[in-house]
Amino acid sequence: MVESKNLPPAVDALSTYVASAIDQVGDGEQSFESIEQDCKRVTLQSIVSVTHATQQGVDPYTTWIDLRDAALSNKKHALNPLFRTGSIDATSLPVEQVLSAHTNNWESKEPNAFDPISNALESFTEYQPNPDVDELHYESANDDRRVSGTYLTPIELAKRAVRPATERKVRERCQEHNCWPGGMDDFERVDAEDIGNVVSSLSIVDPACGSGSMLLGVLEVLAPVIATSIAGSSDPDSDDLTEANQLIVENAFYGADANRLSREACLAVLWAEGGFAASELGPSPDRFVVGDSLQGSVRQQRLSSIESAENGTTYREQLRPINWGQEFDQVFSSNDGFDIVVTNPPWERVKVQTREFLAARQPKLAEVGTSAERGDQIAGERYESVQTDLQQARDQAKKYADEIRDSVDYEWTNVGMLNLYSLFVERSLQIISESGYCAFIVPTGIATDYYTSDFFEHLTTQGKLVSLYDFENREKLFEDVDGRTRFSLLTLSNEPSSKEADYVFFAHEPSDIDDESRHVKLSPNEIGQLNPITKTAPLVRGRKALEILQKQHDISPIFVGEEGDEEAENTNPWGVTYKRMFDMSTDSDQFISINELSDGTRERNGDINMGDETYKRLYEGRMVGQYNHRKSHAKDADGNLFRSGTKEPTKETNLSNPDFTVNARYYLPSESVDAATPGDYPHEWFIGFKDITSATNSRTMIASVLPHTAVGNKFPLLLTSRPAREVACLLTNLNSMAYDFACRQKIGNVTLNWYIVRQTPVLSPEVYRGQTIRGEPMVDWISERVAELTYTAHDLDSWGDDLGFQSTPYDWDSERRTELRAELDGLFFHLYELTETDVNHIINSFGALRRRGDGEFEYKSQVLDVYRSLSDEFSREQSNESLSVSTR
């Protein structure tokens, strides 16, 4: 065998089979791709043989021979497609040797083929043969799963995703057959023949079936229930369960996938999970097709003449469209569509991401810092083939996107940056019957993103949304997905149901759905009150969080409304203009690396003079903290294919030095910065915020003041001509815990987009005017504290001058800074008219704050002390009519 070198078992087996097959076939008779594809099939055959042999207590190699004979003798056998290998003779491969080496890796006490087969498919994607070595050698290709947007779905998660749709449809179908026992736990009272008729009448499809995880989820929900009917008892035995599994698999399941091997793997998994004997056919291959689920007519009885490709390729350009009415004639002729669609579709944009494309082909190119630098290197003769492949992939992606945009099938999801998952959701609604249901695992962006907002509003106002259970991937339910990523278990109904859908947000484990206190009912009207521009879902953590958010919106208008909104008195009370100054990708040809300016002279404000030119730092979000424009240096991220930059935190001793400035990775000529700044902007400083963040960070909104310099697009600016002291009040509002709580109820991923921020409740400038705190004008009371927090270095002298409290930077004192922030947070809880119960709830929701040994939040105690002291003063001064914090 080929030396494994710690390869996954499936890849080790594959490499052995490929090496043997090449020797068998000889040079030039078959393409390497055909040989490798058939060897992948033999690897999956080996896995199925081991899992089947384990259950029967027999020899795996004998089982492989028996399964091969049975599968190839009948085209209706579920394993027939998997065992057909056209480019090689599988019997001449060292199957017995491989089975002997890997039986321990693949055997299981339960009939579980899903895990090893799914792991094998993932390994096939991740590991590729190295073309630069003489001897066959497989190595990791930087995890192409991230590029493809496909991930292994845990069965327990699939089970939770499909349960609402499956149980609703089973109840409806049983009621039609007059055999509904009253509950899913009461099926031992249902006659076995009746339940058999119910199951036989169901049609359940996964249009992106992969290795069958979502269909297995349905099996996990249905089989135990049906087994109780077969047994006539609430305690069915294994034979009853096997009969139930086979009844469902043979009669109810359908599938489609863009990849032929995935379709074959799905059939094999369902056959194995059904506990069929070698000679038993299992699910019919005719019910599982290869093709593009997103293209092709739904109910038209005509087949496209385009031939199917052997394998799914980038953006499916060689796949034949699926004509659903033709391929699944028995479903559409009798029921006008499927009863249930279940799927976890690819989470992939219909766009080539250059860095990810290169990561799997030329990792060194992927590591190059900017888009412009990568483009220059790709254009060289050395990478001519890479340039050709990249351009071809871009052309294919554009062609596919144009076809989708021109299609009449996508009314809601063919806008903006196309994403396959949202297209699959709309397509699924087209292929279900009038009374059908859909169950998905998709990014939570389906309910929160700008480009899906019209679609989500359509789903809610038409009563199609049944439930949405949002998860954050902190517990790594999807192992290869970032822990901050949000995804949802989404259930839709074709028939209008209650317009109050059921929501759960910020779940971490599937069992979190069982906690009734997490569930929130939201109507379209309630959603519109909280996000009036986009009508997207607020991500509230329970009923109390919803009540607080609604109170904040009652107190305050949204930050920037839509022009022409007749119901709003002032759509932009702060006169804010949202500005993304320099795009880190498209403007990168203007950037000058800090290394190119090594001979220049650094000025006190961080600028670099070289020759006759002055260069200004390009600020990035990673350099900034709340009230701190010197939080970190920006650095290149060596060796990280998916993150071009990183940061180096500033030491406390440096923050105490008012002449200290942080380093940027790139600089721009001062003329470029002046040209990018609106001519009527009156200040020599900016305020803005980091838009890469998360609802579970210690703070979601990170706003700060910056010197007049170049700023990257991931730190968008909020330009306003308001005086500095008023702007300091706005900055404090954005950085307050009260506001942050509202903000984190609205962000659905890791980007705090402008459409989110503009719909948050921001207090208007009038709140601060004419009001006093302890006898001092509120604007001055706030802005003096902001001055001490922000004016800590000479590169913000212009900001300090405009504030007018002190002519030199303030000392950096960490303990004092905490006291100042607690005072400001305590005040803003009052300005939002929140009760102490509300305040406790909000602070307790900030789980990332440091705790003391007694379990209390240290900062919480400080804020509550301020809140209570201000409560006494507010009450006393309000009685004298000298202070009002009402914004109504």
From TrEMBL:
Residues 253-356, 410-478 form the Type II methyltransferase M.TaqI-like domain. SUPFAM superfamilies: S-adenosyl-L-methionine-dependent methyltransferases. Its EC number is 2.1.1.72. PROSITE patterns: N6_MTASE. Transmembrane segments: none annotated. Keywords: Methyltransferase, S-adenosyl-L-methionine, Transferase. This is site-specific DNA-methyltransferase (adenine-specific). It is an enzyme of class 2 (transferase). GO terms for molecular function: nucleic acid binding; site-specific DNA-methyltransferase (adenine-specific) activity. Residues 634-653 are annotated as: Disordered. It catalyses: a 2'-deoxyadenosine in DNA + S-adenosyl-L-methionine = an N(6)-methyl-2'-deoxyadenosine in DNA + S-adenosyl-L-homocysteine + H(+). The keyword Transferase applies. Signal peptide: none annotated. The keyword S-adenosyl-L-methionine applies. InterPro entries: DNA_methylase_N6_adenine_CS, MethylTrfase_TaqI-like_dom, N4_N6_ade-DNA_methylase, SAM-dependent_MTases_sf. Pfam families: Eco57I. GO terms for biological process: DNA modification; methylation.
